[in-house]
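ugh ok fine here u go
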Amino acid sequence: MEKKKHRLTKVICMIGAILLIAAIGLFVGGMTAAGWDFSKLSTVRYVQKNYYSRESISSLKIKYANAKIRVVYEDIEQSIHISYPVRVDQNDEEIATVDFAYSEEDGSLTVTEKIEKHFDLFNWDLSAPVLTVTIPSGSICAFDFTAQSGSIGFESAAPIQLNTLTLRSSNGDISATSEGGISVSGDVLLHADNGHITAENLTVGGSLHAESDNGSISLSSVSANAVIAKTDNGDVRSANVTAASKFSAETDNGNIAFTKNLQANEIVCITDNGNVTGETNCLLTAQSLSFTLDNGDLRIQGALAGKPEDYTVLLNLKNGSTNISSGGNGNKTLSATVQNGHIRVQFQN
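structure:
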C-alpha cells in the first residue's frame, strides 16, 4: 500500500513538472514573439479624444489614473489642445469619464478622469496610454498634474514660462526639463512615490521641492531660492545648482553626489546608508555646511571654497579616520557627523 502511494506521488509530481515546463515554454515563446513588451498582454483598450479650449487659461490642473502626461509647446497652436485616452470595454463602451471644468472667475481648467469601479478577472491593464497637452509657445500659466500610473514630461525647443509647477506621480518618472529651459516665477513641487525625478535647465523664483519614496533625484543646471531633495531609497545627484538660501539633500538608502559646482548659503546633507562625495573640479560654496552619515564616507575630492582657516570645523566621528580635525575660528562653519566611515575633505586654497 505504501509503495502504491509513493508511486502515485511520483507520477503526480512528474506530471506537475511537465506542465510547469510547458507553461514556462509557452510564456517564453509568447513573450519572445511579442518582443518582451508586456503592454501587448493588456486586454484593456483606449480610444483617443480631443479637447480644445478657446478661453484664456491661467492654470491647468490634470488628475489622471493611468496615462503618461506629455506637455508640448508649439508655435502653430492658437488654443490649448488636449489629446486624452478614454478607457473602453470589449464592446467599445466607455468605462471611464473625463470631466473638463473651466472657471471663468480665475481662468482655471481642471481635467479629471473618473473610472467606474468594477471587477473583471480577464481585464489586464498593462498598457501606457498618453495624454498630450499642446500649448501655444509663449503662454504663461500654472501647472498641477497628477498621474496615478504614468510618467510626466515636457517637450519644447523654446523657453517655457510658468507661474507655479506641481507634478505628482504614484508610479512613474517625473522630468522637469526641456531643451529651451523652464522658468517658474513661484514654487515647484515634484513628487514621485515610485519613480525617478529629473530637473534640468530649471530656474525657480521660489522653492524647489523634489521628493521620491523609491527613486533617484537628479538636479542639473538648477537655480532656486531653496532646493530640497529627499528620497527614501535612491541617490541624490547635483550638478551646477545654485540655491540663494538653502540646499538640502537627504536619503535613507543611497549616495549623495556632487558632480559639478554647488553654491548656497547653507548646505545640508543627510544619509543613513551611503556616501557623500564631491568629484574632482567640483566646488562647494556656502557659509554653513553640515554632513550627517550613519554608514558611509564623506569624500570631497573637489574642494570646499576658500582656505581651511576660513572655517570653524566641528567633527563627530565614531568609527573611522579623518584628514581634518575640529577647531578653527573662521566665519564659515563645517560640521560633519559620521558614525561608521571616513572623512576626506579638500579645500580650494
